[in-house]
């Protein structure tokens, strides 16, 4: 007998239980439902599927999943053509289902005998994997476990990651990804992504054809020169593009077949790696000047040639090149720098939420930024743009910033400053003032850490800040956790529980005076997946400042009333897939308005832009595989 599980205006989902107990799902025209059947179901059992909030996934796998993590699902998952059969399927993580192949599939694809006889459905596979994940001794072992899963079965990997995103994001991403990069040589199992080195010069364009996908949509590229706050890690920085792209799929719903992690190996200045007999990159010092630039240019040209529509995300380039590389390509090609622009948009969103918490607009904040590198200056520039939106002039806004580097306050007395540093350099205070003296002098309302200097937000500095401001906004944003400017517990202790806090890497809940506080994570992971999804969906020709501003606004709007009541300034990571969809929707709208969407969405009557974008998101379900 058929059971009704949901209806839309036109369609109805039903399921039937077979004699063996397995469930089969059917999608039918609603009008074709047997009238008697409809009449006999009590109305309360008929759950109307709101088209954006549909939680029922019609799994080819016979499981009625009701995970709220995959909220936006396609109603129908067509079969997928693998272009291969037999053992080649089992060895391809994009099509492999491990013990999950159905009997018909085993026959169709010549798999009989190549996989164990008993089939475990996806739900059982996930339960088993999650248990094994929990049994791994430490975060590094957990990370190896997940990357091995990704190497053999991407569908299961992404399903597990999405279902446990709050617990697993810190493993595939910061902070554990930092450890992975530091130990890249010993955790390396098999290659993922592409390496373009100084030894490959003049061959980048033909090399692009070694990559099997003709339709790459997102590339994350690093030159390994500044990996998180861990310095120059050369090709070992590959962990970062891999981790970022895992979030592109888990949070942003970008198809994992269509992403490409890249390291541009321009050498390394890391003395240990230069001497390490097992180092896997080029053992020469970093290329400089024209040699470096021609390598970047060859890479960008080769991308344009092979995948003209691909989005290139520049990641963890040291500040001597980051802003210049972005400036050279941002008007020519679809690209953005995550550390400068993604972080800028993220911090703007968090700052606006914090301003609402403390009931003082951004234009009235006095902001000390510790760190004058790409991230510190990118954030300062974006916050300044936010102040312009609130009516300040450029000069008025500029006066509200105090940028500090490792020597202290940056002033116009310095020489050899970058243009960004020159813009923010003060003219009214002594050069190289210490953080504590600066806090005493200017009584900042907001303190942002992008310095990778562990402990730089000292007890003295935070206590001093709290003397002058009722609710100091304190964001130690450096990654990984080991280099954060302070911990959440320290910030609450030293400001007597008054601070509004967010950290770059996740930190545990804080207890202060018998009250517990949820710690917000301020990380560009809330922006880049949505920006990437938007660029892919609407065929954006470039990433504009307005698109990033739209992303920041959408992120601010994602806080739920409960999160605001908890004092959070960022949504919980468990909602990151919904957040990314909202960010993408706002960005697509902006791109269309600005006329830079080459493939503007064609939306069915009665549907929304958000539904349209949701329908384009990758969902990790087992689709029927055909050769
Ligand atoms: N939460 C997030 O989403 C993001 C966090 N970051 C983090 O920001 C940090 C910096 O990144 P970048 O700007 O790209 O690096 P960078 O190397 O370009 O800049 C670091 C800056 O910090 C300054 N600095 C070093 N020691 C200092 C000290 N003791 N006191 C004050 N300033 C000091 C340096 O002079 C330099 O200006 C990294 O740890 C990175 O992980 C970067 C991007 C996003
Ligand atoms: C989050 C990030 O992009 C960084 O720490 O570099
Ligand atoms: Mg980064």
Automatic annotation (TrEMBL):
Q: Name one GO molecular function term.
A: NAD binding
Is Metal-binding one of the keywords?
yes
- GO CC annotation: what is one? mitochondrion
A biological process term (GO) from this entry: malate metabolic process
Entry annotation: catalytic residues: 173 (proton donor), 244 (proton acceptor)
Top-level lineage group: Eukaryota
Residues engaged in binding a divalent metal cation: 315-316, 339
Keywords noted in UniProt: Metal-binding, Oxidoreductase
Q: Which cofactor does it need?
A: Mn(2+); Mg(2+)
Instruction: Please state every residue range assigned to the domain named Malic enzyme N-terminal.
Output: 150-330
- Please give the SMART domains that the UniProt record associates with this protein: malic, Malic_M
Residues bound to (S)-malate are 226, 479, 523
Where is each Malic enzyme NAD-binding domain found?
340-592
Q: How is the cofactor bound?
A: Divalent metal cations. Prefers magnesium or manganese.
Query: So what family is this one in?
Result: Belongs to the malic enzymes family.
The protein here is known as NAD-dependent malic enzyme
Q: What is the lineage of its organism?
A: Eukaryota, Sar, Stramenopiles, Oomycota, Saprolegniomycetes
């Amino acid at each position: 007998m058929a059971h009704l599980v949901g209806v839309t205006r036109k369609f109805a989902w039903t399921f039937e239980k077979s004699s063996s107990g397995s469930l089969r799902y059917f999608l039918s025209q609603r009008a074709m439902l047997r009238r008697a059947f409809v009449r006999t179901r009590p109305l309360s059992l008929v759950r109307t599927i709101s088209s954006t909030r549909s939680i029922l996934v019609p799994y080819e796998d016979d499981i009625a999943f009701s995970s709220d993590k995959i909220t936006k699902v396609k109603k129908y998952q067509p079969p997928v053509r693998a272009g291969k059969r037999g053992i080649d399927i089992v060895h391809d993580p994009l099509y492999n289902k491990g013990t999950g192949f159905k009997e018909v599939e085993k026959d169709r694809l010549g798999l009989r005998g190549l996989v164990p006889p008993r089939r475990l459905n996806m739900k059982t596979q996930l339960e088993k994997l999650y248990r094994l994940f929990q049994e791994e001794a430490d975060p590094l072992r957990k990370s190896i476990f997940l990357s091995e899963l990704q190497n053999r079965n991407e569908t299961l990997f992404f399903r597990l990651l999405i279902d446990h995103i709050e617990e697993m994001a810190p493993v595939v991403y910061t902070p554990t990804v930092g450890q992975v990069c530091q130990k890249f040589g010993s955790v390396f199992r098999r290659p993922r992504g592409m390496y373009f080195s100084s030894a490959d010069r003049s061959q980048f364009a033909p090399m692009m054809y070694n990559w099997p996908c003709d339709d790459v949509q997102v590339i994350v590229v690093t030159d390994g020169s500044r990996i998180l706050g861990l310095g120059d890690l050369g090709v070992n920085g590959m962990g970062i593009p891999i981790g970022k792209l895992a979030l592109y799929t888990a949070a942003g719903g970008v198809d994992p077949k269509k992403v490409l992690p890249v390291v541009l190996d321009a050498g390394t200045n890391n003395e240990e790696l230069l001497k390490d007999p097992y180092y896997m990159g080029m053992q020469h010092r970093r290329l400089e000047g024209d040699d470096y630039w021609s390598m970047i240019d060859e890479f960008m040209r080769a991308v344009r040639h092979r995948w003209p529509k691909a989005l290139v995300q520049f990641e963890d380039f040291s500040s001597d090149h980051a802003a210049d590389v972005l400036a050279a390509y941002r008007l020519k090609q679809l690209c953005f720098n995550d550390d400068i622009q993604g972080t800028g948009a993220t911090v703007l969103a968090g700052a606006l939420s914090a301003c609402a918490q403390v009931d003082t607009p951004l234009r009235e904040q006095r902001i000390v930024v510790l760190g004058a590198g790409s991230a510190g200056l990118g954030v300062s520039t974006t916050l300044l743009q936010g102040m312009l939106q609130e009516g300040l002039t450029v000069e008025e806004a500029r006066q509200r910033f105090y940028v500090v580097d490792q020597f202290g306050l940056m002033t116009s007395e310095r020489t050899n400053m970058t243009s960004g540093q020159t813009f923010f350099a003060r003219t009214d205070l002594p050069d190289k003032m210490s953080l504590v003296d600066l806090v005493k002098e200017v009584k900042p309302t907001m303190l942002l850490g992008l310095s990778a200097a562990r402990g730089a937000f000292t007890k003295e500095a935070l206590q001093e800040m709290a003397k002058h401001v009722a609710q100091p906004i304190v964001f130690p944003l450096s990654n990984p956790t080991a280099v954060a400017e302070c911990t959440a517990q320290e910030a609450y202790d030293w400001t007597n529980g008054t601070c509004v806090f967010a950290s770059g890497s996740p930190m545990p809940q804080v207890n202060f005076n018998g009250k517990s506080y949820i710690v917000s994570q301020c990380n560009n992971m809330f922006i880049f997946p949505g920006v990437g999804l938007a660029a892919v969906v609407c065929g954006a020709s470039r990433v504009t400042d307005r698109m990033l501003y739209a992303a920041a606004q959408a992120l601010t709007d994602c806080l739920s009333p409960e999160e605001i009541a908890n004092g959070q300034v960022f949504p919980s990571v468990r909602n990151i897939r919904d957040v990314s969809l909202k960010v993408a929707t706002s960005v697509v709208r902006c791109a269309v308005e600005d006329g830079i969407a080459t493939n503007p969405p064609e939306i069915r009557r009665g549907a929304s832009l958000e539904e349209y974008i949701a329908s384009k998101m990758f969902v990790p379900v087992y689709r029927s595989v055909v050769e």
